[in-house]
Write a structure and sequence with these properties.
Blueprint: E1 2-3, E2 17-23, H1 24-33, E3 35-40, H2 54-63, H3 68-77, E4 81-88, H4 94-100, E5 106-112, H5 113-119, E6 128-132, E7 134-136, E8 154-156, E9 164-170, E10 181-185, H6 188-191, E11 194-197, H7 203-215, E12 221-224
Parallel strand pairs: 1-6, 7-8, 11-12
Antiparallel strand pairs: 2-4, 2-5, 3-4, 3-10, 4-9, 5-11, 6-9
């Protein structure tokens, strides 16, 4: 269930468009299981994920001089936080296609902030929050740590192109087993407003995706990427 956290900021307009770029297998897993995969935060490619900037770390070190468990807790906490990443953009992103899909057979899910909020279903043991990532200079800027989600809502400026919004949960109080991540229940029809097919995919691939979505009893609109429209000259 989506909950509001006043410390976690979001675009005010619920119609703000967000995207998720993924391969066919992950897309089908979402449709068939009706569950959204959330990755363990320490499994992301960015090794700084969930860590602190230098000014914050120096402060935490001072606080942990007489309480070493304080620092150890922050280190292990990354294994208990799970994240689903989305990209804010009014339009498709050529860069996102390049980074997150392979072999010209990827897909992009188009949604909105409002749809993400409504798509999350109540969870018995934990809550999901949605927040926009802040991009800062980790050598100079301070990350507050009065909220356990704070280090997970900041990334280095070199990742600004991601324009990330993330669904995030803290499972540290739960006995849920987390390997690479967990799957959460979602309303798929609410989550997905439109599906875009990879701009360099063949026509047979688009037909395959349409057929698969139809056989799974979804009525989601499917389009070929706008990036490969016919040239007008």
């Amino acid at each position: 269930m989506y909950k509001k956290n006043d410390n976690i900021k979001l675009p005010e307009d619920p119609d703000t468009i967000v995207w998720k770029y993924l391969d066919l297998s992950k897309f089908l897993d979402l449709l068939m299981s009706r569950k959204l995969f959330m990755s363990r935060s320490d499994k992301f490619e960015d090794q700084y994920e969930g860590t602190f900037s230098e000014p914050t770390y120096e402060e935490i070190k001072k606080l942990s001089e007489n309480n070493p468990e304080f620092l150890d807790y922050y280190k292990s906490h990354r294994e208990k936080v799970v994240v689903s990443s989305w990209h804010i953009n009014e339009y498709e992103s050529f860069a996102m296609w390049q980074i997150f899909t392979q072999n010209n057979e990827g897909l992009a899910i188009q949604s909105t902030i409002g749809r993400l909020q409504k798509a999350l279903k109540p969870e018995i043991n934990y809550s999901q929050f949605i927040g926009e990532v802040n991009y800062i200079d980790y050598k100079k800027e301070y990350i507050p740590f009065d909220d356990m989600f704070f280090p997970f809502m900041f990334k280095r400026k070199s990742f600004q192109y991601e324009r990330e919004v993330r669904i995030i949960s803290d499972l540290s109080e739960n006995a849920i087993k987390i390997n690479d991540g967990i799957k959460i229940d979602v309303d798929v029809n609410q989550l997905i407003e439109k599906i875009y097919i990879h701009p360099k995919s063949e026509n047979w691939y688009k037909k395959l995706v349409i057929e698969l979505v139809s056989k799974l009893d979804y009525t989601i609109e499917i389009e070929k990427s706008d990036l490969e429209s016919d040239i007008l000259i």
